[in-house]
């Protein structure tokens, strides 16, 4: 999903061609409430929390296997972000993308500096915050 906060819209990219309406519709109601809840105190009165509209992006017929969807999703997000035409996404490019992702993960797993940094990582402490009830 690509959520546009300026034009209250949600673009849904589903490699499997399914419309998960139940899950997507929950976001259309929830996102405006979250935006309203985190707004500056003086602006809450001015904000009209209206429901987001949903559009399903037409996905071309690609030869996706069950384990390829992640790579396809990354490429669709990349094209959407860069304003590129989705026709650039094809089975050959995505197969190459899967190999690059696998190699990058393998390389990172064998990087001594990264291994050291990860061994010393401590999650940040979170201060208890005010709980906001959404009606």
TrEMBL record:
Belongs to which family? Belongs to the peptidase C48 family.
Domain (Ubiquitin-like protease family profile): residue spans on this chain:
2-109
User: What InterPro entries does this protein map onto?
Assistant: Papain-like_cys_pep_sf (IPR038765), Peptidase_C48_C (IPR003653)
Give the protein name, as stated in the record. Ubiquitin-like protease family profile domain-containing protein
Q: Which GO terms describe its molecular function?
A: cysteine-type peptidase activity
**Record keyword Hydrolase present:** yes
Domain of life, source organism: Eukaryota
Query: A Gene Ontology biological process annotation?
Result: proteolysis
Q: What is a single Pfam family found in this protein's UniProt entry?
A: Peptidase_C48
Record bears the keyword Iron: no
Which of UniProt's keywords are assigned here? Hydrolase, Protease
From what organism does this protein derive?
Brassica carinata (Ethiopian mustard)
């Amino acid at each position: 999903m690509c959520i546009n906060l300026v034009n209250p819209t949600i673009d849904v990219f589903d490699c499997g061609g399914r419309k998960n309406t139940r899950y997507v519709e929950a976001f259309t109601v929830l996102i405006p409430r979250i935006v309203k809840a985190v707004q500056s105190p003086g602006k809450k009165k001015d904000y009209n929390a209206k429901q987001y509209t949903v559009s399903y992006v037409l996905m071309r017929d690609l030869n996706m296997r069950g384990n390829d969807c992640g790579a396809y999703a990354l490429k669709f997000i990349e094209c959407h972000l860069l304003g590129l035409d989705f026709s650039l996404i094809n089975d050959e490019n995505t197969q190459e993308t899967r190999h690059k992702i696998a190699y990058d993960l393998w390389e990172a797993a064998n990087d001594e500096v990264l291994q050291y940094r990860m061994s010393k990582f401590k999650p940040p402490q979170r201060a208890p915050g005010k709980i906001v009830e959404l009606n």
